[in-house]
Specification:
mainly alpha
Length: 417
């Protein structure tokens, strides 16, 4: 069985005390009335006391009935217009919702409140503090991780893959390669690469001569003498290395100029040839159809999520530090830049006005619907705990005021008789 909160227990004790006081006062004046009526006789003072006690009883009983009728039926009797909270809870909720909408949820009221509160300046000052910026950065990081976790991996993979495919398919491969090759060969940009390439080929032949000799020997005719084979291979190898060294050393070498011309011709053909365009598109489509593309996309998303989670959990990570710095800088700008502050203030006011214009009915419906879902008896009990002590003082005041009124009326009647 659950235990009521300490605040609720305190209110129950306070209600019980005030009820006892109000009931005790009513009982006291009732005793006075009975004693005066039975033993007071016809004396003048007895008449005053009896009239005062009677009026006090009437006032106390009337206020007891009124207070009790708010929350339940007095003495359990089915008297009309009693147990008002229980019977009219839903109407009360609708009335309260309408009151909130008409008095508090209007654009004018909300905009004035936002303007008077100085939200932008206070927000800027709060964000400019390093510790507050760190708190916001932590919340933003956690929200980003939670948002990433909410997304289905397969859906993200399809989106990324679709973006990659649409981007790749929108750009013809052959003309792109032609433009890249043309840029690469203009103004001798490729000369250093060719120098390194020819030099590398020369070094490769020098390092792997024996392997190449073995490959040639395996393919040469059986009747060719080995000494002749060696001589032929050495001459071929020396000639090839000599040509490579010459091409690497002389950028005006005939073979090198022919090679450059062929590169430029290939660049032009790639940009203009329909056949090469079609072949490039087929190659591109074949590449994009490979399952490795999907695996590559999945690995990109997995790596991004893992990196985001790691950075979000580490207060010293680049992500967190940049977020803190950016948030604090934004706070300082809100303080120091009147134009920016005015822009944010205007946007905030427009946002509040838009919410009030378009969602006041929804908020009112939320209030009335929430109250409608409350249990009527429980609602009455809670309202009595909240208002009951003050209402018991109303009972005591009614008893006192009744006494004063009864005394005054009796005095007036005695004076007129």
């Amino acid at each position: 069985m659950s235990t009521a909160p300490a605040s609720e227990q305190s209110r129950r004790r306070q209600l019980a005390v005030t009820k006892r006081r109000a009931t005790g006062l009513l009982a006291a004046v009732t005793v006075v009335f009975v004693v005066t009526t039975v033993w007071g006789g016809d004396s003048t003072w007895a008449g005053y006391v009896e009239a005062t006690a009677a009026a006090s009883m009437v006032g106390g009983l009337a206020d007891w009935f009124a207070v009790t009728a708010l929350f339940r039926r007095p003495l359990g009797l089915p008297i009309p217009h009693t147990a008002i909270v229980v019977e009219r809870k839903d109407q009360f909720g609708a009335t309260l919702a309408d009151f909130m909408r008409e008095s508090f949820l209007t654009p004018e009221v909300l905009v004035d409140r936002v303007r008077a509160a100085g939200v932008v300046g206070r927000l800027g000052g709060w964000l400019a503090k390093e510790e507050n910026a760190a708190r916001v950065a932590a919340e933003v990081s956690d929200a980003a991780v939670a948002g990433a976790d909410l997304l289905r991996d397969d859906d993200v993979h399809r989106v990324i893959e679709g973006l990659v495919r649409s981007r790749v398919e929108s750009v013809p491969l052959a003309p792109l390669a032609g433009r890249a090759l043309r840029f690469f060969t203009q103004d001798g940009r490729h000369d250093e690469l060719l120098d390194a390439t020819f030099g590398g080929l020369d070094r490769y032949l020098a390092a792997h001569g024996q392997e190449l000799r073995a490959q040639l020997g395996a393919r040469s005719p059986w009747w060719l003498p080995g000494a002749v084979e060696d001589r032929i291979f050495e001459r071929l190898l020396d000639g090839a290395r000599s040509v490579l060294r010459e091409m690497a050393a002389d950028r005006n070498h005939d073979l090198r100029r022919q090679f450059d011309a062929r590169l430029r011709l290939l660049a032009a053909e790639l940009e203009t040839s329909v056949d090469l365009l079609e072949r490039g598109e087929r190659l591109k489509h074949d590449l994009m159809a490979q399952p490795q593309v999907r695996d590559w996309v999945a690995s990109i998303w997995a790596d991004a999520k893992g990196e985001l989670r790691a950075q979000a959990c580490d207060p010293e990570s680049d992500l967190r530090r940049h977020l803190v710095s950016g948030i604090a800088a934004a706070g300082r700008r809100l303080q120091d830049d009147p134009g920016l502050a005015a822009t944010v203030q205007t946007a905030l006011e427009r946002g509040v006005a838009y919410l009030a214009d378009h969602f006041d009915g929804d908020i009112a419906a939320f209030i009335s619907g929430t109250i409608a879902r409350w249990d009527a008896e429980e609602t009455a009990s809670r309202l009595e705990l909240l208002l009951g002590p003050d209402l018991q003082y109303v009972r005591m005041n009614g008893t006192v005021v009744g006494a004063i009124a009864g005394l005054a009326l009796h005095a007036v009647a005695a004076a007129l008789s």
